[in-house]
Structures are given as structure tokens and as C-alpha cells.
Amino acid sequence: MQTTPGLIRITAVLILTVLVSACGDDAQQRYDRATEALKEAREQRSEAQNAVQEKENELKEYQDKLDEAEERLEEARQQLQAAEAKVNASVNDEVLFRTLQRKMLDEDKFGEAAIAVGVSDRVVTLTGTVPDQATRKDAIKTAENQSGVQEVVDFLEIENKPAEKKSPKQE
């Protein structure tokens, strides 16, 4: 059994009670007080044990729920893998090309970009220009996340925007 702060406190109270009761009382009074202190200590120990047991039961319930959730997660992963396998078996380069080209043309985040998509043996090649590094990363991620894509080749270039011309200060 582990020592808990409650048991330490109970033991300290019991010892203190015995020591205090030993001063100036007759033997019967000391015995009665010590017996009462022992009874209280046993009750407190019993309460502490009950509290520990309740917490252990509660912990077991949470562990059971966690185990159940992990099983459901594993089932979902297996279903996802099966679905991806079906998609990969049915997808071809033409479908990938049309899907990705549509995303590059229709999504607002690629509005300032000029991205061309090429697909050969499920390898996607991205060419063209994008306004910034963030848009480049988004385009690559979009292609990589498309089911059926095995690899993405990046030939995207970031536009060099001309610096704004400042008019000379008039004096």
C-alpha cells in the first residue's frame, strides 16, 4: 500500500493524541483517548481507501473509453486506406489532370497565379508563375493531397513584381 498524505496525517494525530494523553491523566483515561484516536484513525484510513478505490474505478472507466476510441480510430484508418486503394486503382492521368487543373483555376487562392498542370504516370508537374512563396506552397500541397498522385514536380516560379517608382521630391 502506498503512503498517502492522509495516512501520514492520521498517524501524526494518533501519536500526538497518545503523547498528550500521557500527561497528567490516569491510565484508563489515556487508554480511552488512545482507543478513540485509533478508532478515528481507522475510519479516516477506511475513507481514504474508499476514495482511492473510487478514483481507480473512475480511471478504469476512462481507460476503457480510451481503448474503445482507439479501436474506432483504427477502424476508420483501415476504411480510409481501403477507400484510397479504390481511388488509386480507378484513377488515371486524365482524371488527375482535369481535377488538379480545375482546382488551380477555380480556387480563389490561385487567382493571381498562372499554373499549368501536367500528369504522366501519376507524377504531377506544376509549371507557371505564382505571386509569392505561400501560393507556391499551397499549389504543391494541393497537388500532393490529391488522391492518386504519387509525386509532385515543382517548376513554379515566383513573379518578380517591379518596384514602385517613386517620384522625386519637389523642393
Percentage beta strand: 5-15%
Question: Rg, please?
Answer: 37 Å
User: What kind of sheet is the major sheet?
Assistant: 3 strands, mixed
State the end-to-end distance: 90 Å
Globally, the shape reads: rod-shaped
- Helix count from the secondary structure assignment: 4
Oligomer: single chain
Fraction of residues in helix: 55-70%
Strand order of the largest sheet: 1-2-3
What does this structure look like?
With 171 residues, the chain is of the alpha+beta class. The protein has 4 helices and 3 strands, in the order H-H-H-E-E-H-E. The chain has helices at 5-21, 27-90, 93-106, 133-144; strands at 114-120, 123-130, 151-158. Strands 1-2-3 form a 3-stranded mixed β-sheet. Strand 2, helix 4 (133-144) and strand 3 form a beta-alpha-beta unit. Helix 1 runs antiparallel to helix 2. It is rod-shaped and about 100 Å long. The protein starts with a helix and ends in a 13-residue tail after the last strand. The model has no long low-confidence stretch (mean pLDDT 85).
Summary, kept brief:
It contains four helices and three strands, in the order αααββαβ.
What labels describe this entry?
single chain; 171 residues; alpha+beta; three-stranded mixed β-sheet; 13% strand; rod-shaped
Task: Give the helices and strands, then pairings.
Blueprint: H1 5-21, H2 27-90, H3 93-106, E1 114-120, E2 123-130, H4 133-144, E3 151-158
Parallel strand pairs: 2-3
Antiparallel strand pairs: 1-2
Helix pairs in contact: 1-2
